[in-house]
Amino acid sequence: MAEYRDLYSSLRGAGANAAAVSVDAPEKSESVRRELRLPFSILSDAERRVVREWNIYNAKEKGGIAKPAVFILNPDRTVRFASVDEVASRVPAAEIVRRLSERDLGLAARKVLIPGPATFFRAVRSAIRWAWPNRKSRLRLAKCALGHSAGERSS
Amino acid sequence: MTEPSLKTAALPHVGQTAPDFELPDSTRAMRRLSELTASGPLVLLFYRGHW
User: Fold this and answer.
1) Rounded (10°) CA dihedral B42, B46, B50, B51
2) Worst-scoring range by mean pLDDT, A4-13, A26-35, B6-15, B30-39?
3) Which of A33, A119, A155, B34 is deepest in the core (most CB within 10 A)?
4) Of B15, B24, B47, the CB nearest to A1
């Protein structure tokens, strides 16, 4: 937790937020948060409802606790990364920062948002098809457009 | 297999949509997962707790 606190600015720098979950009561979590000076929220799953649903419930220890786990969730809650441990260790915070910096899914989303030349060409073509359903006039228009760009390219 | 620390398959898996939940934070304010993820990726840490 302290490790994640120390790299919190890097997480924020990568556009991410952080939150923790434990089975402690809110009051206990608040003292942990103060003690460790955590800049993110600690959620209290005292009823063990979420840890059971997420299959990270360890019933064998201390009346039932959460296994150390780290998830990276996209804004639509798709799981981008998941790691669950049986022991006290967890994925190093630096590894999480590295994965956030990859921005693999972020890039894929941006590709859709900002149309490239191919998308632009397809949009123009479908607009032409819609506006000039006659094949002959369409060809004439296409030749005109292509001739213009071909001329630009050869010069 | 590529994650040496991964011993148990977690639910939800990578690529799946995590089920939404609402839990109180340490000030007893109710927080919804979908609100926490709304402004960007969320690093969600589950920890054992202190007793």
Assistant:
1) 130
2) B6-15
3) A33
4) B47
Is residue A92 exposed (0-12), middle (13-18) or buried (19+ Cβ within 10 Å)? middle
Q: Which two tokens stand for residue A101?
A: 């910096």
Contacts of A11 in chain B (CB under 8 A): 43
Q: What pLDDT is stored for residue B11 in this prediction?
A: 73
Pairwise CB contact (< 8 Å): A90 & B5: yes
Residue A143, SS3? helix
Predicted pLDDT of residue A92: 84
DSSP string, B1-50: ---TT--S--SSPTTSBPPP-EEEBTTS-EEEHHHHHTTS-EEEEE----
Asked whether the beta carbons of residue A71 and residue B18 sit closer than 8 angstroms, the reply is yes
DSSP strand pairing (B42-46 vs B30-32): unpaired
**Residue B23: pLDDT band with limits 50, 70, 90:** very high
Instruction: Tell whether omega for the bond before B12 is within 30 degrees of 0, i.e. cis.
Output: yes
Distance CA A24, CA B19 (A): 21
Note whether B51 contacts A18, CB cutoff 8 Å. no
ipTM metric: 0.80
Residue segments in chain A with a per-residue pLDDT below the cut of 50: 106-114, 150-155
